[in-house]
Amino acid sequence: MSRLLHISASPRGAASESLAIAGTFTDAYREVHGDVVDHFDLWDGTLPVFGPAGAGAKMTVFAGEDPSGEQATAWRAARAVFERFDSYDRYLFSVPMWNSSVPYVLKQFIDVVSQPGWVFGFDTEKGYTGLLRGKKAAVVYTSAVYGTGRPPEFGSDHQAPFLAGWLRWTGITDLSSVEFRPNLATGDAESGRRAAHAEARELGKRF
User: Fold this and answer.
1) Is 120 within 8 Å of 130 (Cβ atoms)?
2) Predicted confidence (pLDDT) at residue 125 exceeds the cutoff of 90
3) How far is CA 80 from CA 2, 11, 59, 83, 201, in A?
4) In what order do the strands lie in the sheet with 36-41?
5) Nearest 5°: phi and psi at 7?
């Protein structure tokens, strides 16, 4: 049985467009597949800090040694997050745009799980190899100001390229996405919202 993990990066609850669209996706997914769907709210307080001890542990592992002391504690905390993430074979990310990119808590999640031997392998001659093969991901992207074709004064997209690039780097190449970027010039967000929910519903059914 496939297992889907919804990783959400918005702290806005019922006011969140990305969470609402993701809800439409997961409802449709359950109706068709009946598989396990879990939710990892990145704002729930369980995501560990990956600071000096974590960074030190990472470099210790790179050197072929085992972390100890504070480094070992940080490494175990990061490993627990990775094991939760890795136990699923399908992912849904709901990601609002913050300052042209992703919310910092999503970058924190990425920095926690992106460790040697977990998400990637490294060879001095061949470079990086993604280790999360055989998995697939869908992403809901939302933004309130930026939109394709709008002047640069309305922002740039460092959101979708960043997350899609990271997913491919991990070895996940089966990617789908839904975008909701309302056109502020027309003042009509509802038609775009309906289209995004319809697209999410169809994607959830066939995911």
Assistant:
1) yes
2) yes
3) 21, 22, 19, 5, 32
4) 36-41, 3-8, 90-96, 136-142, 174-180
5) -105, 110
Kindly state the DSSP code that residue 14 receives in the 8-state scheme.
Answer: G
Residues 22, 92 contacting (CB under 8 angstroms) = yes
Q: What is the pLDDT of residue 2?
A: 80
Q: Which helix (H) or strand (E) holds 24?
A: helix 17-33
The rounded mean pLDDT for the chain is 95
> Could you tell me how far CA 57 lies from the centroid of its own chain?
24
Strand, coil or helix: what is 187? Answer: coil
Residue 185 pLDDT > 80, yes or no?
A: no
Please state the φ and ψ torsions of residue 149, each to the nearest 5 degrees: 90, -5
Residue holding tokens 């460790």? 115
Q: Give the residue-averaged pLDDT of 139-146.
A: 95
pLDDT digits (tens, 9 = 90+) for 44-71: 999 999 999 999 999 999 899 999 999 9
Q: What DSSP string describes 70-110?
A: HHHHHHHHHHHHHHHHHT-SEEEEEEE-BTTB--HHHHHHH
R_g of the chain computed on alpha carbons? 18
What is the C-alpha to C-alpha distance for residues 194 and 207, in angstroms, rounded to an integer?
20
Report all structural domains of the chain as residue ranges with CATH numbers, in order of start: 3-206 (3.40.50.360)
171: phi > 0 → left, psi -120 to 50 → alpha, else beta; which? Answer: left
Question: Across the strands, what pairs with 138?
Answer: 92, 176
